[in-house]
Amino acid sequence: NLNYTHRVSPTLSTLGYTQSSQYYGGLSCTTFGGGAGFEWQPKESTYFSFKGGPQLNASTGKNQQGFAYNTYFTVKLPQRSQFYVSAARQAVTGFLGPGLWEDDFSTGYRRLVKNTNTLLFDVGFVNSTTLTKIGSYRGLYFDGSYTHVIHRGISAGLSFRNYTGDSGSTSFSRNLMILSLTWTPNVRPLFQ
Q: Model's pTM, two decimal places?
């Protein structure tokens, strides 16, 4: 994936991107796409972004085409916290089950606890669409995460996510726990 961002003004940036994914298993298909978008921060406490464009599957994916997008809105709240909403339609890489497209909507709350710890809780809905021979899935997810800044630009995180849904006539529940170590050079604090 390749992204390019150009700052037009102190509050507005434009962006362009390309992306590709490889489906494995029963699909064995490659998808390519690209698009444009913008990031807008009209004031310190409010941020909105949108990007989207065509996504094309190779002939092994039945040349299926679609429009991929990603949008995100966040607003700062009192006591060093944030509320956010996001929605996306993206090519799927088969994490929850087979699928060519995944629609995702989530909302959440993030709070900085002390100066080095962040708590996050969110809830969302996910739905996939597929080729007719392969079943799709849909369901809800809940997640929580805790991040601790070890040193400026270096943080450790622990997150847990639960998916509950169905794939055709079969119900499923999946749990995912991720331990991460993140390094971000030239980092700017999330809350100021």
A: 0.73
